[in-house]
Structures are given as C-alpha cells and as structure tokens.
Design brief:
Largest sheet: none
Helix content: 55-70%
Distance between the termini: 38 Å
Order of helices and strands: HHHHH
Number of domains: 1
Number of strands: 0
Shape: elongated
Strand content: under 5%
C-alpha cells in the first residue's frame, strides 16, 4: 500500500514537472519569437516562465529529496557500519523535517499575505505562485517520513541497507 502510494505520488509529481517544464519552454520560445522576429514582445510570457520555474524548483527539490538525489559528501559516512550510518541519516532527516515544517508553516503565512497581491503581466493572484513553498514542504515531509522509517528499520536490524558499503558491519 505504501509502495503504491509512493509510486503514484512519484508519477503525479513527474507529470506535473513535465507539464511545468513544457509550459515554461513554450513561454520562453514565444517570447523570443515575438520579441526578435515580430518586434512585439509579449507582456506575460516572461512572468509565466518565471512562475513555472518557481514551481519547478520547489517541486523538483522535493522530488530529488524523495529519490535521495541531493548531493552530499558521504566519503567519511560510508566508512562507518550500516547501523551507525542509519543513525546519522535519522539525525539528518530529523533536521530536514524541522526545516520542512518551518517551510509549511511560514509558507502558509505567506499565502495569507500574497492572496492580496496581483502579478503585473498575468493578473494572477500571487498566492498561486507562493503556494509552491508549503506544497513542496508537505511533499518533502512525506518523503522524509518514509526515509526515517527505512532508517529506523535498518538501525534496529529489520531491514538491510541499500547503496555503498551496505554489507559491512565493521568500519574499513
């Protein structure tokens, strides 16, 4: 059940990101064409591309977090036994969880203010743009909780670790 929910979420997020990327590319291409070929720039295309980029950045970051694709320097961490690495991962994930909670709480507060702001080119309420912050925070919390559960299972020995140096129980 959890695996199916995670897979459905991943597919939904990937689809959303593909749509945002496509809209952004089309908006930028239209802007270039209208500005340099027709010499009549569009007033809204740059703004649309910018807002799509905001959503791509935040939702893409949560997707990367879910797949553990954020870069990290783990040379020293991989020298430790798997249970110790799981403990470090738990501590790190708890810190990230706190940050994500702050994102959600303060992102929601920002939405209350942004509700009254209107964008210049698209005449769009800015809370639609700023909603990327708390929504990505919620997605990140979902993924962090999954990672925490996996790490706890590794730490108590109910699950085998995945990745570099997984079968070692002694430092090298």
């Amino acid at each position: 059940m959890v695996k199916k929910t995670g897979m459905a979420a991943k597919i939904g997020i990937e689809t959303f990101l593909a749509v945002m990327m496509t809209i952004m590319i089309i908006a930028v291409c239209l802007q270039v064409f209208f500005r340099y070929v027709l010499l009549k720039p569009l007033s809204w295309s740059e703004e649309l591309a910018r807002y799509c980029f905001v959503w791509l950045s935040f939702i893409g970051a949560s997707m990367a977090l879910g797949q553990k694709l954020h870069f990290g320097i783990d040379y020293l961490v991989n020298k430790f036994p798997s249970r110790f690495r799981a403990g470090l991962s738990i501590a790190t994930n708890l810190l990230v969880l706190i940050f994500c909670l702050v994102m959600v709480i303060h992102g929601y507060k920002t939405l209350e203010t942004a509700r009254y702001m209107i964008s210049a080119g698209l005449y769009l309420r800015m809370d639609f743009v700023f909603a990327a912050i708390p929504i990505s925070g919620v997605i990140m919390i979902f993924y962090i909780l999954r990672h925490l559960i996996q790490d706890i299972l590794i730490m108590i020995g109910l699950r085998k670790p995945e990745g570099v140096g997984v079968n070692d129980d002694k430092p090298t």
